[in-house]
Amino acid sequence: MIAFGILGLFGAGQGFAQTDLLERARQQFKPIPAEAPALPGNPASPEKVELGKMLYFDPRLSASHAISCNSCHDLGRGGADEHSTSIGHHWQHGARNSPTVLNAVFNTAQFWDGRAKDLEEQAGGPLVNPVEMASAKAHVVEQLQGIPGYVDAFKKAFPNDKDPLSLANAQKAIAVFEATLITPNAPFDRFLQGDANALTAEQKDGLTLFLDKGCSACHNGINVGGGMYMPFGVVEKPGAEFLPPEDKGRFAVTNTPSDKYVFKVPTLRNIALTRPYFHTGKSWDLRQAVAVMGTSQLGAKLNDSEIDRITAFLGSLTGDQPKITYPVLPPSVTATTRPEP
Amino acid sequence: MIAFGILGLFGAGQGFAQTDLLERARQQFKPIPAEAPALPGNPASPEKVELGKMLYFDPRLSASHAISCNSCHDLGRGGADEHSTSIGHHWQHGARNSPTVLNAVFNTAQFWDGRAKDLEEQAGGPLVNPVEMASAKAHVVEQLQGIPGYVDAFKKAFPNDKDPLSLANAQKAIAVFEATLITPNAPFDRFLQGDANALTAEQKDGLTLFLDKGCSACHNGINVGGGMYMPFGVVEKPGAEFLPPEDKGRFAVTNTPSDKYVFKVPTLRNIALTRPYFHTGKSWDLRQAVAVMGTSQLGAKLNDSEIDRITAFLGSLTGDQPKITYPVLPPSVTATTRPEP
């Protein structure tokens, strides 16, 4: 315990001048911008964003009419839920922990294994996954076509399309809405923008450790992650609780042997809001997750003081949460398809 | 069909002057006020309403952390869902159709059988119902106490309480939030307030029929219902699909033989948004529900034209839906109780 105390007094970060730390940080990270980024080939309009928001919150996209995008990517809870794996159709569980939708637009690809290249492609996945929303593709369109308010809303969102109401356009609208779900103005962003007081001394120490220990080799860029693929357990395999042998990660996408147990490096943005952690969702404790990363990815047994400071730094990644006006959805009418019983 | 045409031309309402119709309507109905009503013994404050909103949207009040008040009383869908009976814990179904929370504050009691005297009492029901949210009473408090943001929010909402975080106070907060969920400014309200053009000619005909046929004997007052109990099938029992023999309604509350198959007369406010209909939720078609009411409650076989006009009038009961800023919920921390697996 004395050793920890000494480390606390002479922590790794305290030898560097603040300007040095800022310069080092700016080489690795970028702040979240204030405005939603544009999506290539899918220009935003207020009508398209509004349609996307309605679809995001509408449980009628699921076979049961009980599960919406927001059920598992809850915009009131860091864009995720708190289940190890989310509860889906008929109370089945998904295969991996629900990742946050917040700032997902900045990830290099979507899903833990990167099997969707962007938000638009991702949005089509859970809709038809039998353990998630469990809709048939044709059913989604039939369902929406039976709701007059959606027929109008698609026309307004896609004014130049001959056939505006389609699954592809639903995915486009959801994607432009999701691109608005960014969280600027985290203490760490303000630090990157030059406010030296935006981080506490402990958070600055944690940032220094994050850089020195090598965390930022993978968790870097605008999303402090989300930009590359790495094997989980590159130095030492964590226990089967965190890395069960049957989920081979990106190998299932690429069929390349070196992709076994490779996953997309997750964003650490808003990580304090999005427990539980790892693709299994089996760690409820951010400090534990930091420790596991140390041993499995860096071959470093972090001590309690280091874990505290890195965890404090991670707390500085919580940004302004999106302000959402809950959508009033277009009502079903007699001709609208009913939920399955 | 000729007969219907003649009835259409010389419909029951058309012989009355509009001022007469307005006077008759004002004797039976009152408009929804612009402001939320005060609750006796439970004064509102901005902090209490905000806390109530957070609790209303928070799935962590359920054992699974997957079901919130809003899951079945969706503020984007008329304050209800579209299931005959809602999907609850482990995909079980509730016993009766989920009634709308909108304007529920104006009902004389809560639940289809009136077993809760007010919103505050009602809010405690689904929380602990094993087929709904399935929490244990003690668990709700333990869960909330493990979330630091809630500890603060209860202190602010109940500043004079020695023990602010309690299940009773959670129910009070939810009740004051729900009291804000009112829908003023429906066309019918504007008509009652003197705007003769707020209803179409067909809707005025429908209102006249609604008065003449006797619908308003039960569906009256501010909520066009919600003010009394009546047997379903008072003239003629509807089929078992709509009135299954095993659900004896209010009899289970009072144990009074005359209360067999007695239910609270439901509000017709926003009825066009809240299909399906009846306590069984077995009618998806508002016109069908109107016809069944005619035969079962009034002994009147309404013709198609009458049903059309009454249904048109019911459409005038859709008011301004509450504008809700989706709450950012206080985050769980390591010490917070996890959802059941």
Describe the structure.
Chains A, B: Keywords: Heme, Iron, Metal-binding, Oxidoreductase, Periplasm, Peroxidase, Signal. Chains A, B: InterPro entries: Cyt_c-like_dom (IPR009056), Cyt_c-like_dom_sf (IPR036909), Cytochrome_c_Peroxidase/MauG (IPR051395), Di-haem_cyt_c_peroxidsae (IPR004852), MauG/Cytc_peroxidase (IPR026259). Chains A, B: GO terms for molecular function: peroxidase activity. The structure is a homodimer of 341-residue chains. Mean pLDDT of chain A is 94; it is low at 1-15. In chain A, helix 2 packs across helix 10 (201-212) and helix 10 (201-212) crosses helix 13. A two-stranded antiparallel ribbon of chain A has the order 1-2. Chain A is globular, with a radius of gyration of 21 Å. The first copy, chain A, is 36% helix and 2% strand. Chain A has helices at 2-9, 18-28, 46-57, 69-72, 119-128, 137-145, 148-157, 167-179, 187-192, 201-212, 251-254, 286-298, 304-315; strands at 229-231, 262-264. Chain A is mainly alpha-helical and 341 residues long. At the A-B interface, loops of A face loops of B.
Short description:
The structure is a homodimer of 341-residue chains. With 341 residues, chain A is an all-alpha fold. Chain A is built from 13 helices and two strands; from the N terminus they run ααααααααααβαβαα.
